[in-house]
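FORM 7B: Structural annotation worksheet

SECTION A. Query
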Amino acid sequence: MVLIQGCQNGDRESQRLLYKHYYVYCMSICVRYAQSEEEAREILNDGFMKVFNKIDQYDPEKPFKGWLRRIMINTAIDHFRSNKKHYYHADIEDGYDEVLEANAVDDMSYEEILLLVQKLTPMYRAVFSLYVIDGFSHEDIARELGISVGTSKSNLSKARANLKKMLVKTHKEVYEQYV
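SECTION B. Predicted structure
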């Protein structure tokens, strides 16, 4: 790809075009790990700095998009680790105890689901995104976040429970169709 070669040569215009071309894709990754759009942009920009600094390590035999995705996820994890001490670990306020049927989720848009995921506490959000969306194992999550495997499993369970509570609370009319 010409843009990648330009970036490897330090061409600023190639870097700008690569950034612009992959902005939406990378932002969709970063926003899953961030508490706000501003934080997601910070992760995204840090990620692109890593991309441009490590572009010589890219193996052209493999898909660029996968390499880029991995850098964005790792940057989000690094961001999480560096800010972990600032996060509070309070659970989402208790809602309904009912369990939401899977069919109700089918009626929701990706954006609606993403907004609910962003309301999870930082640790729950990180574990949920890594496991459910990015396909990490609990062992990988534990290693990346500096927690135990049991904590990873517990946080995933609590994240799912909190998401169900939020779904019931925010989409009560949809939920009631399936009760």
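SECTION C. Observations
The radius of gyration is 18 Å. The mean pLDDT is 83.

SECTION D. Sign-off
Analyst initials: ____
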